[in-house]
User: What shape does this take?
Amino acid sequence: MATPRRSESLGDLGSERAAVLADGGAAGLGPGTARAHLATLAPGRFASYAYRSPRTRPYTQPRGGFPGFTEQRALTRAFDEAGADFIPLTIDSQTRHNDHERAAALLKAGLAEGRDLLNGYPLISHGHLRTRELYEGVDRPVSLRHGTPDARLLVETALAAGITEIEGGGLCYTLPYARDYPLDRALAHWQYVDRLCAVTGPPGLPVHRESFGPLTATLVPPVITIVVQLCELLLAAEQGVESFAVGFGHTGSLEQDLATARVLRAKAAELLARFGFEDVRVSLVYHQWMGAFPAEASLAWQLIAVCSQAAALVGADKVVVKTPDEALGIPSVESNAAAVRAVRYVLDMVPYGRTLANDAVDEEAALVESEVTTVLDHILGDTAPTFRQSVYRAVLSGAVDVPFAPHEQNLGLLVTDRGEGRRIRIREAGRVPLTGEQLRWEHRLLGPRTADEGPLWERLLRDIRILA
Assistant: This one.
């Protein structure tokens, strides 16, 4: 049986860390750099401290990354002044794929030409010392947002720059974001990241880890979302991570969101207790709609408001904010700041932490909890010697199958559709080990299709723009 256990900890990282830092070639970045700098920061800079603090609404956290330091500093200040609770640092795609030489060249060329040639902030190119200056005078946690299968050097640099929340994971950042990066290697690299985060924070202020919940954000059923989140949580707990956030994205159905949040919280607590990780504090992150956005600004604002209300109703600890420019390109500083202010306005109007339920939510939660238990029992019952290997084998076998993921090791046999109330339903399980009873339940909730709805492929294409 593949039992998650602390004995799988990588220890002090040793020679692997020395090699990672040597390959990075960053001046002044050594094994003790990050720990020494984090020890100088105020508690308000730590995500783990924020999550322990009482609140009357979900925290707000936008996205945002510009190539140049001056632009990113302006964005940081704008977010701070708008009242964002967490400040983002979104990384460019060249750095995400560890092509640091090209990232540096495009940064230099863009600055010379006066235009952006990167779609985010090239952290490795700027370095940890320069990046620290982004946050002078800012007493809020900074969150690293990227999408990197091998984030070892990136996270080393981020921690040394004073970033205390690290998003990602071997599953959630590889299956949706990479095509051919070997999944087993990505899982191993993210064990390094988890261990690095576990040993770097000062006493009582651990570095916080966050999994990416939306995955492909395209018809991903709750069972897959939750199983991936729980696997990432347990893999991090093995490495000693003490503060972790699971999450998911707006599905298009408030009832399904309420059920997903209920099951995700309950199963996280159950598994941590079962495997002796009671010291791990778990938070819940809710992402506003990650699919196609309306191009018309008024409709985009309406969707943002709906998602903000849903974040409060599901009892999220943090909501990741969208902007009205989502359909048009990279949002401006002004659009980002306006979105933060609007979301905070809505959150202040909605009751927080209330339990909402009806028969549909209860039924949805019962089905999802049953499915999650079945798939997790399959993974945990695997004969591999480690939990990490069992997770890897679960993807190869199709027991974990993310719809529309581009990764070549993701089987892509799971077929989903929309049922009553826009809830995501499983039409064909592929090799996900659901029971016959669970599939009959899914099909009943899916309901019959009418001829005017067209074939499945047409419905899937329409679904991409369901809220646009």
